[in-house]
Design a protein that fits this description.
Structural class: alpha+beta
Bound molecules: flavin-adenine dinucleotide
Strand content: 25-35%
Oligomer: single chain
Largest sheet: 8 strands, mixed
Number of helices: 19
Length: 831
């Protein structure tokens, strides 16, 4: 057996097979795939094989689209038929809300070149007369997908991998990982059959590998323990049943009727497809339990759980309603298997936290659909440094060390149950909340805060009167919360507002090597002591890895503020880069101080007046003046008895300060500010209003405009890139050029809706030229606003474009950068 390879892929399910195949196809000649049992013996063998293109996420839509196209090519390459039945996919809607969801999705589909068609109930009935349609509003139809045989497609990928030189070894279990500093030593045990069980033998080998990828499916918890990391991938039970042949279906097909597409009655929470004259029903029911939270028992091989028919009774009855001929049809078979989930339902794909050359591909709930694309994009990340799409939404480090087994299990059950809920863009999921709360949480709740969760933190989205039901306020259009956000945004533009920004990620970086390190790590000039800069850390390929507000506290001491959702991700990148460079630059200390510092952002023309009421200073009248506290500077101030590191920046683009304070004094500071603000009409403001306001200033956000698929120059931020110095990713950034450019648009959209930042952009003649990455409402211009990427020649002020919203294209105009207060006069106002 070969004992030294460039890349070792652990796990021979659909995902592992695809990764091995794509690594070889991307040019790595020395790849090995290890499987503890037989290929496909994990969840892959019992999957129903559906390949739904439908997905609300941009990255995942790309991944699914790649798979569907790729699987069609496998037979020609390998000679193996993967059993792809391209019957199409019909997603039915019982309500207008559901149609709205499909229309929002359709815009994302257009940005990813996924073909779709609309169907009326009459058209459905015409084509598939067995389907009851009188209570439907319509359907979206994907003609290019369908279902595949999961084992066959895995075998085809494994064969393709072998043909490209990959070694596939079965019955070898990975039992330990050790990093030597330059490669992994992977201890593998030969597994043998004993009385129907698979048990470890005495035979062991150690394989050294430069890179390891784990794709261990339901065994992710064991993998996590071996690696000493957390992986929130825990399976949930998922059942499907197979019926006896349905005489009506058999007759219909005998008379030349076309095979039914995979049918989805999303409002009834199930999919149905034909299977040998009968039907497969796959429900996503309530109360499906998480399993194997602490590992898969040795006795569980290619096994199943007992069917729980009671749990899926509601979905079963609704199938009978939708396809009345199924009423008389008996059950033939059932499958209840483990299906891996993660708290947000997205798999975990990318570098493992804290480890070198260790890649995770875990937590797949649509793993047959996602396998192809995951292999393709992960291979790009490993071989080229980054994928061509931004994989951040799948990054394993989106959960921090606060995540626990109990949290993952309960959230994964929720993610399963939510597969068919209405995917409102303003949705907030309820399970395991509140969990991470800042001290002012109770006070904010008492004042009507409607919270959202960011990286587990509770953060006010907006404030509403007592008794307000956030759940009922959700919509694909302007939800019930919209008016409250408008009032909050206006308060900041016209008066003063207070935003809780405690969730921000905060790092202190200090030590003799720090200045040189940060100068290399980020692309903008470092600020002088007491000053602030906005800057970016780049990836190896020159795209944006992280955005930082960087405050220079001392010659060699810096305070870095970055997005709240990305604490573990930012900490990991910083630590790895600093460890790499400490030898060259000197000692660099990195402290994650996120949970030690609370943050309130006070903003608006009257913000200085409020602060003046409570600031303790020999001369309170001038303490906040432009002379003593200029824009883009930081000062240690005292507000009442609270020491505050105040930073003169405002993400809303209004006169304002961020007040970073010791978290244990947060309630004191909150009360103090609230009292002082009363006479100035200060309003508590949530994240939704802030998100709109920052778009009026063209402030890019990480995860939307800023990501690993665009350079800071493509984000049109040359003023924050110091080309006179050398920095990580510079040459790659320059070599990339400008493929697309970020711009801000004002939109004459529908009266009852704003864009969400997923919409496709067009020229007047219907040519697609880009997409929105953010969207919302502008109180300054009293119309919809958005930011996005377009062909570079079109990112010019005054350019007329069209935005797809719902069923038509709406007028949009590219504005100048920062359409509100382009000269930053209000921000710099003296007083
Ligand atoms: C009833 C049911 C229906 C489903 N239907 C669909 C569907 O229609 N469409 C769809 O896209 N998805 C479907 N799924 C989900 C799909 O089955 C999974 O997402 C997919 O199979 C995951 O593939 P994987 O390669 O990640 O994991 P697995 O197939 O579980 O493979 C992981 C492999 O890793 C091996 N392994 C683990 N640890 C080690 C180790 N230490 N050393 C060596 N080998 C190891 C395991 O033996 C296993 O073979 C369904 C799931 C269920 C339960």
């Amino acid at each position: 057996m070969k004992t030294h390879v460039k890349a070792l892929v652990v796990g021979g399910g659909a995902v592992g097979a695809s990764i091995a195949y794509h690594l070889a196809r991307a040019g790595w000649s020395d790849v090995m795939l290890l499987e503890r049992d037989e290929l496909t013996s994990g969840s892959t063998w019992h999957a129903a094989g559906l390949l739904p293109l439908f997905n609300m996420s941009y990255a995942t839509t790309h991944i699914h689209k790649y798979s569907v196209d790729f699987y069609k090519t496998l037979e020609e390459e390998t000679g193996l038929n993967a059993g792809f039945s391209v019957v199409g996919n019909l997603r039915m809607a019982q309500t207008q809300d559901r149609m709205d969801e499909y229309m929002l999705y359709a815009s994302t589909a257009e940005t990813c070149d996924v073909p779709y068609e609309w169907m009326t109930p009459a058209q459905i009935k015409d084509r598939w007369p067995l389907v009851r349609t009188e209570d439907l509003k319509g359907a979206i139809y994907h003609p290019t997908d369908g279902y595949i045989n999961p084992a066959d497609v895995t075998m085809a990928m494994a064969k393709g991998a072998r043909q490209r030189g990959v070694i596939v070894e079965r019955k070898w279990q990975v039992d330990g990982y050790e990093w030597t500093g330059s490669e992994w030593k992977v201890t593998c045990t030969k597994m043998v059959e004993k009385g129907g069980n698979l048990v470890p033998s005495e035979e062991q080998v150690v394989i050294t590998a430069e890179h390891v990828v784990t794709a261990t499916g339901n065994h992710a918890q064991r993998t996590a323990r071996m690696l000493g990391i957390k992986i929130p991938a825990i399976p949930v039970e998922h059942q499907f049943i197979v019926t006896e042949p349905d005489p009506a279906l058999v007759e219909y097909r005998k008379n030349g009727g076309a095979e039914h597409p995979v049918l989805r009655d999303a409002d009834a929470k199930w999919y149905v497809r034909e299977e040998r004259g009968g039907w497969i029903l796959g429900p996503y029911e309530r109360n499906a339990p998480a399993r194997f939270a602490y590992g898969v028992p040795d006795s569980f091989r290619a096994d199943l759980f007992p069917l729980d028919l009671e749990r899926i009774e509601e979905e079963y009855m609704s199938m009978i309603h939708r396809i009345p001929s199924t009423e008389e049809v008996g059950l033939k078979d059932d499958f209840n298997g483990p299906i891996c989930y993660t708290p947000d339902g997205n798999p975990l794909v990318g570098p493992a936290p804290g480890l070198r050359n260790m890649w995770l591909a875990e937590g797949f709930s649509f793993g047959i659909t996602a396998a192809g694309g995951t292999g393709y994009y992960l291979a790009q990340m490993m071989v080229e440094g980054e994928a061509e799409i931004d994989m951040a939404s799948l990054d394993p480090k989106r959960y921090g060390s606060w995540m626990t087994t109990e949290y993952a299990a309960r959230k994964n059950e929720e993610a399963y149950e939510h597969v068919f809920i209405l995917h409102h863009p303003d949705e907030e999921r309820e399970a395991c909340r509140p969990l991470r709360t800042s001290p002012a949480y109770d006070r904010q709740a008492a004042r009507g805060a409607q919270f959202g969760a960011v990286n587990g933190w509770e953060r006010p989205n907006y404030y509403a009167p007592e008794g307000f039901d956030d759940h009922a306020a959700r919509s694909f259009r302007r939800g019930g919360w919209w008016q409250h956000a408008v009032e909050e945004a206006r308060a900041i533009r016209d008066g003063v507002g207070l935003i809780d920004a405690t969730a921000f990620t905060k790092h202190v970086v200090k030590g003799p090597g720090t200045t040189q390190f940060l100068d290399w790590f980020t692309c903008n000039k470092l600020p002088k002591v007491g000053r602030i800069n906005l800057t970016y850390a780049l990836t190896d390929v020159g795209t944006t890895r992280t955005e930082y507000t960087i405050v220079r506290l001392g010659e060699d001491e810096y305070y870095l503020v970055s997005a709240g959702a990305w604490t573990a991700y930012d900490a990991d990148c910083l630590r790895k880069a600093a460890a790499d460079k400490a030898g060259e630059f000197g000692y660099i200390e990195i402290q994650d101080v996120t949970t030690q510092w609370g943050v309130f952002a006070i903003a608006g023309p009257k913000s200085r007046d409020v602060l003046k009421e409570v600031i303790k200073d020999a001369n309170p009248d001038t303490a906040l003046s432009n002379k003593r506290f200029p824009w883009l500077s930081a000062r240690q101030i005292e507000l009442g008895m609270c020491p505050v590191n105040a930073i003169r920046v405002a993400y809303t683009g209004e006169l304002g300060w961020e007040l970073h304070h010791p978290i244990e004094m947060q309630n004191y500071l909150f009360d103090l500010l609230e009292q002082a603000g009363e006479k100035h009409g200060m309003k508590l403001v949530g994240a939704r209003a802030q998100n709109w306001l920052r778009q009026e200033k063209s402030y890019r956000a990480f995860g939307t405009e800023l990501g690993r698929d665009a350079t800071p120059l493509e984000a049109d931020l040359p003023r924050f890139v110091d080309l006179s110095k050398d920095f990580h990713g510079k040459a790659a950034m320059e070599a990339t050029g400008i493929r697309a450019k970020c711009c801000t648009l004002l939109i004459d959209g529908p009266e009852d809706a704003d864009p969400w930042g997923r919409e496709a952009l067009y020229l007047e003649d219907g040519t697609r030229i880009g997409r929105l990455t953010s969207g919302g409402y502008s109180v300054a211009f009293e119309k919809s606003i958005g930011m996005g990427y377009v062909r570079p020649d079109l990112a010019v002020e005054g350019q007329k474009l069209k935005v797809r919203m719902f069923d038509r294209l709406w007028d949009a105009t590219v504005t100048c950068d920062s359409p509100y207060d382009p000269k930053n006069e209000t921000i710099r106002k003296d007083g």
